[in-house]
Amino acid sequence: MTMQAALVILVFSGLLAVKTTLAAQHVIGGSQGWEQSVDFDSWSSDKSFKVGDQLVFKYSGLHSVVELGSEAAYKSCDLGTPVNSLSSGNDVVKLSKTGTRYFSCGTPGHCQSGMKVKVNVVSADSTAVPSPGSDSSSDSDSGSSTGSDSGSSTGSGSRSSSGQGLRASIGYILAVGSLVIGLVWAF
């Protein structure tokens, strides 16, 4: 019976490794970060975000991050009732469910000048074509933020779109390897 328990633990460990390796960290604005000079519509046009991914907002003290609750607030730059406000300069927001999320700079006039981004989050197992507001690349080594109910969290690590397939392969190898080792050990 202990052999079977060990097998179950090994299989679940491998599956957890797969899930972890498939999540990506997206630095909003790429190497420029969360700055006014970035065209966020262009930046996000070839990107896709998945549940479990993280958004990283890197910026100077001149900016902040405000999450807006609706498309209407996003379009009109209505910052009056934000879902969340962040101001560390290195904020990480975890994408914990599917749907659209809206972010803007909280500095007066910055949203109106285009410092805002719309993120369409799809399920983690989705094979959909990339949609505006997502990226598998990261120029960040670490992140921190103020926690909140809107999905903010602390994260670290760097991910790139070219390494996404490799990370997935490694995760699957770990899962299958754990299963094989568990089976060999059980018999």
Automatic annotation (TrEMBL):
InterPro entries referenced in this protein's UniProt entry, alphabetically: Cupredoxin, Phytocyanin-like, Phytocyanin_dom
Keyword annotations from UniProtKB, A to Z: Membrane, Signal, Transmembrane, Transmembrane helix
Superkingdom of the source species: Eukaryota
The Phytocyanin domain, residue ranges: 24-123
Pfam families per UniProt: Cu_bind_like
PROSITE patterns attached to this UniProt entry: PHYTOCYANIN
Keyword set includes Acyltransferase: no
Membrane-spanning intervals of the chain: 169-186
Signal peptide: 1-23
Region (Disordered): 126-164
Protein's UniProt keywords contain Signal: yes
Biased composition (Low complexity): 130-163
Record-given protein name: Phytocyanin domain-containing protein
Species of the source: Brassica cretica
